[in-house]
Amino acid sequence: MPTVHFVKQNQTVECPVGTNLRQLALDNEIDLYSFPANLINCRGRAMCGTCRVKIDDVRAASAPHEDELAKVGWEGPQYRLACKTQVLADLEVVTNPRKAQGWTSHPTYKWMEDLPH
Ligand code: FES
Questions:
Q1: Structural domains in the chain (count)
Q2: N or C: where does the chain have the smaller number of CB atoms within 10 Å of the terminal CB?
Q3: Is the pTM for the entire model greater than 0.85?
């Protein structure tokens, strides 16, 4: 059985191959969401993007879902939606990763860097 290590929580959990990463986190009381997304989220429908995680090995997880690519694909293959990720092998997971420094870091808003300050 694969093991999933949640880095921020320093907690390691065993699970069967194919386990949904969001469900695994919730079942083990891992803080997957930050406030207020812990109260209001899409419940695993790939609509809100708040279950975003960073994984260490892209081959240890299922291929990204089409809906997932629209939400986190621009950040790179290590950024996934936990609700659309199945565990295939040993994995390290960072919950609430901070690559982007806010919405202006999205490539869509690159033009704003040229504006006078
Ligand atoms: S729970 Fe909303 S996108 Fe995963």
A1: 1
A2: C
A3: no
